[in-house]
Specification:
heterodimer; A: about 250 residues; alpha/beta; 5'-nucleotidase,  domain 2; 5-stranded mixed sheet; 4-stranded mixed sheet; 7 helices; B: about 300 residues; Purple Acid Phosphatase, chain A, domain 2; 6-stranded mixed sheet; 8 helices
Chain lengths: ~250, ~300
Amino acid sequence: MRITFLFILLNIFVFSGCKEQNLRLTKIYGEQITITDSIALNSEIEAYIKPFRDRIEKDLDSVLAYAVDTYSKKDGDYNTALGNFMADAVYSESNPIFKSRTGKDIDMVLLNHGGIRSILSKGNVTKRTAFGLMPFENSIVVVGLKGTQIDSMMYYLSKGKRAHPVSGLKLTIDKNENILEAKVNGKNIEKNKTYYVATNDYLYNGGDNMSFFKTNDSLYVLDYKIRNALIDKFIKLDTINPVKDDRFTQIK
Amino acid sequence: MKRRDFIQQATAGTALVTLGGMGLQSFTTLKKTTKITILHTNDVHSHIDAFGPEDGRNANKGGVARRATLIDAVRKENPNTLLLDAGDIFQGTPYFNYYGGELEFKLMSKLKYDAATIGNHDFDNGISGLYAQLPHAEFPFIISNYDLSNTVMDTHTKPYKTFIKDGIKIGVFGIGIELAGLVDPAMYKETKYLDPIETSQEMTRILKEDEHCDLIICLSHLGYQYKSKKIDDIKLAKATKNIDLIIGGHTHTFLKKPTIVKNIEDKNTLVNQVGCYGLNIGKIDFYFDSDKNKSANGTSIIV
């Protein structure tokens, strides 16, 4: 009896002991603090970051090539020198990778006009130039599309009024945006043939309403960022002097 | 936060929710009040430097060195502070391209983050890329609904962790987003995604019943809210119990104030998210009273 009593007492003691505080959540106060320049820099953290930052700055600013002029995505209605450069770079840098993996060649490249994020300035071209043109992490994918889907793409391009960068394609439209000529690799589009189109993962996933990528035969993920293709192209070229041509034009 | 400020806030027309009676009156009968401060970030995306003065949207905002100053000040004011991150630490500036996340983890360690969960972009260099940076992280990764047992991350994350601050026990668990369709399977490899609601129910049971936590926090990378049936922080809050705070991420949602959601027991759960890129830091103070006054008083939420 006495032991039981002690046990009960002990139990009460332990129980009330651990619950002595009888904690109760009474109030919650929430706020959001914006990090502005009115907050001082922590000098120790700043000093720690500096060598990391300096190395990046130095590398980003190391000269890879020279641009003979300033190029903008606004320098043309249906094709621009800058867009042509980017689409051609994606073709030339990714085709060897695609070919070594599949034995096939890329037929054409389609990027989006909105994906050109800066101008390419006259003078030294650096990695920073590539980060400016393509700050996003989009990667190159190759999509197998039937001729019928290529036709949908041609229709999309003909009505888009945008200089979406293309390579391997010849598209001519009239003043009413009717297609006069549409050729891939210099040949007419065959409805049942599979064409291998290099683009980026954003567009493949329906970006810029490019829904024609959805119905496809196959997808090849190259694990190769657009930006890295541009950097690799810059390294290979001494001089950047792309031109506007007749790959995508409107006859007025 | 000083009481004066709190009253100012309350009278400034911000939302004041009092439940279960006259919560504010209980202040006069307090024996001891303990304040737990939760500081949180999400989707910092390698934004180590502040945005430049030329930036169109976020000029002169953000930056780790300034965040450090702010965190120091909050900790000085209240040592009972936890600093948490809701994922997507990686990807977004050349710092990630050049160093693979090393500097992000080193700085978070210097800022003494207490824990982080894993976001989809933290797989951007593959699960092996995440694993490779772990030696630089002096804080645990908490993720409850990814089964990583067949990956290199096995044993390097925790399903939950408890912290004790001035006698208050805080349980933290982590919920990640479904990776299929969002991240290349070659990146996340054999990471298995488990149901967020079921996992949360299991975690809150453990943290409440087994660990006897006074405060339960979910670090989530599900996203704030989707119109579709896709699970989000709001749906998670509604479908669960015993979660006091969901710290969200993924959708880069800038909330003016935390959202108060009624959970499955009709009790309040707070959902918060502070945008992205280290532009903001969330600060939630939880006040606990130790009193022997058993009268049923509610919790005031001032946001």
